[in-house]
Design a protein that fits this description.
Layout lengths: L1 E3 L2 H21 L1 H5 L4 H20 L2 E3 L2 H17 L3 H35 L4 H10 L4 H15 L5 H30 L11 H4 L23 H25 L8 H19 L6 H21 L10 H26 L4 H15 L2 H15 L3 H30 L1
Helix pairs in contact: 1-3, 1-12, 3-12, 4-10, 4-11, 4-12, 5-6, 5-13, 5-16, 6-8, 6-13, 6-16, 7-8, 8-13, 8-14, 8-15, 10-11, 13-14, 14-15, 14-16, 15-16
InterPro entries: GltS (IPR004445)
GO molecular function, one term: glutamate:sodium symporter activity
Membrane topology: Multi-pass membrane protein
Length: 410
């Protein structure tokens, strides 16, 4: 028996999943230590429950696809709306070099995934799912591409497969980043562990916080107002409307792209036209709040409707590919990212960040870097480059590379 939730019930269920996730993280040290997001913790528990219910009572749940897609598009719009061209100028040469390092890794990640899938005798596109779609892309990209792969490329359970792979990557990205950076720092004697940067030192006056490096002071309070919230909602509405229009216009043409890519690109254009040409103030804090809330709700809905029983035939092959991807990430960060970025303290923090979003997501990357800088001291360069690259450029580069590969398979 399949129960279909409409938009109202889907939203209620997603909020319950988030509350359960918050409870689990507060109670279980492992989840806190490795920065597992609330929707992932609660959603996986819900997925396990629905799997048991399916096996015993033949019971499953389908959530509102329309509401789920809307929250996904709001999240990707928030990434675009956060991309100020001022940051590009401040990042300078180091940002360009890091983008080259990251882009090369995305290609390598997909090569490893597709090659191993072919060797293991499964569909090469599944190797792509266990590549940059889920690992560099994270849960949001996994859900977005999963729907496309299911409908257009007939990959059954692609969304479920993607969520499982993305969750694995999220955990491993949080596990390997800190230890790798610490090993590099100690081996090359880059910094002494003689300064502790606690949350109390992060609690700076709000007016002194640099908006362009928001993650460097995680304990600082950032306020939003009713006016900024309403204005920001208007920006999101414009992004969704234009992305829907462009998706219909570009359908069956050479520049056809997934709707979430149009939403992201529209956000970039709107942000920089309003701010740099029309001199309109954009409220980054409100964008961050709505974007993160939308991602949490989207992930909760996606994980709530996971059908884990669809993965049984692929579990062995998927495990081999994902473990191999972790090994490749460690070696790449150690021998390429660290050395190309200067073989110094900033480079070690950047390597920890690269492990975070190379396997998981930008929040994981930031958490990795905070763990290192709390122990050894600040790295302004890393906190400027990684959030900008991981939250914006990676999605565009990743989408372009995936699109080219899928055109080949098509």
């Amino acid at each position: 028996m399949n129960i279909v939730f409409n938009g109202y019930y889907t939203l209620i269920a997603a909020v319950i999943v988030l509350l359960i996730g918050k409870f689990l993280i507060n109670k279980i040290g492992f989840l806190r230590r490795y920065n597992i997001p609330e929707p992932v913790a609660g959603g996986l528990l819900a997925a396990i429950f629905t799997t048991i219910a399916y096996n015993i009572w033949d019971f499953s749940i389908t959530t509102s696809a329309e509401l789920q897609t809307s929250f996904m598009l709001i999240f990707f719009s928030s990434i675009g709306l956060s991309a100020n061209f001022y940051k590009l100028k401040e990042g300078g040469k180091s940002l360009v070099i890091f983008l080259f390092v990251v882009s090369s890794f995305i290609i390598l990640q997909n090569f490893v995934g597709i090659s191993l899938a072919t060797i293991l005798g499964i569909d090469p596109i599944i190797g792509l799912i266990a590549g940059s779609i889920t690992l560099t892309g994270g849960h949001g990209t996994a859900g977005a591409w999963g729907e496309i792969l299911e409908t257009k490329y007939a990959i059954e359970g692609a969304t479920t497969l993607g969520m499982a792979a993305a969750t694995f990557g999220l955990v491993m990205g949080g596990i390997i980043g800190g230890p790798l950076a610490k090993h590099l720092i100690n081996r090359y004697k880059l910094k002494e562990e003689n300064q502790k940067y606690t949350d109390e030192k992060d609690k700076k006056d709000e007016k002194t916080i640099d908006e362009f490096v928001p993650f460097e002071y995680p304990a600082a309070v950032r306020l939003i107002t009713t006016n900024s919230a309403i204005t920001t909602l208007g920006l999101f509405a414009a992004c969704l409307a234009i992305s829907d229009f462009m998706t219909n216009i570009a359908k069956d043409t050479f520049f056809e792209l997934p709707t979430f890519v149009w939403a992201l690109a529209t956000g970039v254009l709107i942000r920089n036209i309003l701010e740099n040409i029309l001199k309109v103030t954009i409220f980054d804090r409100a964008i961050d709040v709505f974007g993160n809330a939308s991602l949490s709700l989207y992930l909760a809905m996606a994980l709530l409707s996971l059908k884990l029983w669809q993965l049984s035939s692929l579990a062995g092959a998927l495990t081999v590919i994902l473990i191999s991807q972790v090994v490749v990430m460690i070696l790449y960060a150690y021998f390429v990212t660290f050395r190309v970025m200067g073989k110094n303290y900033d480079a070690s923090v950047l390597s920890a960040g690269h492990c975070g979003f190379g396997l998981g997501a930008t929040p994981t990357a930031v958490a990795n870097m905070q763990a290192i800088t709390n122990m050894y001291g600040p790295s302004h360069k890393a906190f400027l480059i990684v959030p900008l690259c991981g939250a914006f450029f990676v999605d565009l580069i990743n989408a372009s590379i995936i699109q080219v590969i899928l055109k080949f398979f098509a």
